[in-house]
Each structure stands twice: as C-alpha cells, then as structure tokens.
Write a structure and sequence with these properties.
Blueprint lengths: L1 E8 L10 H7 L1 H12 L9 H11 L19 H14 L23 H19 L2 E6 L4 E5 L7 E3 L8 E5 L12 E10 L6 H7 L15 E2 L1
Parallel strand pairs: 6-7
Antiparallel strand pairs: 1-2, 1-4, 2-3, 3-6, 4-5, 5-6
Helix pairs in contact: 4-5
Length: 227
C-alpha cells in the first residue's frame, strides 16, 4: 500500500548529541519539536499541541516503552505512564516549556505506586530507546501529517509504503529507470525500513477491512517493482 509522501525531514542525528549532557546543553530534540511545529499544516494525531506532543514523544523512541527496556514493549499499552515518563525526561534535560492550562506538564502517577526514583530510571531508559531510534536517522513528516523516523538517506518526495506481511513500513524512491514493459511509474529503490506512528499495529489494514477511507487516511494499493 502506498501510504503517503514525505514533505519534510530533519537533519541526521548522531549518537553523541542524544546523550543527556548534550541534550541539556544544546537541546537538539527541543529544536526538532519546534522545527516540526513550523512545518505542520495538519496532523493525523489530533487538533491540539498536547495530542501532537504525545505522538512526537512516541515517534522519537520508535514507540518503545521506557519502563520496559528489556522487552521493548509498546509504550502505547500504558499511555498515562508514558506521558509521566516523558515529562520526567523533559525535566532531566531542562526542556523549556510554558505551563499549559490542561495540566499536561504535571507528572502523573497512574498506579499510585511509582516513586520519583523509578520515574528517573524510566526516563533514562526512554533516552536509551530514543538514541536507538534516532541515531543515524532522520525524523520526517508526511503530507497527511504522519510522524516517522527512517534511514538518513531519505529525502523529501520519497514514498512511505506498507507491505502485507511485513513487520514495519518502508521508505522507497522513484527509480527513474525503464522496465521491459516500458513503464517507469511503478519502479522504486528501497531506502529502508521506518517507524511511522499510528500504523505500527496494523491500524491501516483494520481501516481497510472496515471500509474506512477518507481524505486524510485513504490508501492506494499498488503493485510496485524494486530495482
């Protein structure tokens, strides 16, 4: 399935700049968030900055739970705890954010038993997952408003696809070569696998199975040739 086209991407991140000391000093992730806000014309993830912030926090860690580093469980399984861990991460790096009247800057103890020490440990584990997700990769935004992370060779204009039976989505690029049939339109080069928030758990196929198709989430199914 051809999902969408990339219309903005960040620079490539290095491992060194994702360390705690560098993030406190230079704020590369905060800058990424601010750059993203200037690029967005709309979002798949909701109308508020709070909704987009949640999607961003999951994308830059490839959806891995900061409190489940051993088994890489999905953070979306406990969104309240994930928000709390993310706020603790922001506290660790001195993220400069103005308080909001929705209370979302407050730490949340979803189970009534998470200590400050545990939250700090989870926040450090979140940073480990963040480095795994972003090192030598670029963050991107698609024309429909999807957030994603993929190989550092991706470019604006590349296409995001979902292949039946694959565990992850991919990024491909028009090859511009002519096949034996004289056709160039369905020939692509593989750029690499990706994380795209909101489709990693089969949501697109569920939508298709349920006949859900709209302007922002519609899908185009097509046979392509990788060359």
């Amino acid at each position: 399935m051809l999902l969408d086209t990339i219309n903005w991407c960040s620079r490539t991140f290095t491992d060194d700049e994702l360390t705690l000391l560098f993030q406190v000093a230079e704020a590369p992730v905060q800058q990424l968030w601010h750059d993203l806000q200037h690029q967005e014309q709309g979002s798949m993830y909701g109308p508020t900055s709070y909704d987009r912030d949640y999607a961003f926090s999951l994308t830059i860690s490839a959806g891995r739970a900061g409190w489940r580093a051993a088994d890489d469980g999905p953070a979306e399984d406990d969104p309240i705890l994930h928000r709390s861990v993310y706020r603790e991460y922001q506290s660790l790096i001195n993220w400069d954010r103005r308080p909001r009247n929705d209370g979302s800057t407050m730490k949340v103890d979803p189970h009534g038993q998470i200590s400050e020490t545990s939250l700090q440990m989870y926040a450090h584990a979140y940073m480990v997952n963040q480095r795994r997700a972003l090192t030598n990769r670029r963050f991107f935004l698609t024309s429909k408003g999807f957030y994603g992370v993929a190989h550092n060779t991706l470019e604006v204009g590349d296409t995001c696809i979902v292949i039946r039976g694959a565990n992850v989505p991919f990024v491909i690029r028009k090859a511009g070569c002519v096949g034996q049939d004289g056709n160039t339109s369905n020939r692509y080069r593989l750029i690499g696998e990706s994380y795209i928030h909101g489709i990693m758990r089969g949501e697109l196929f569920d939508r298709q199975a349920n006949g859900i198709d709209n302007q922002r989430g519609g899908l185009a199914e097509e046979t392509i040739h990788l060359v």
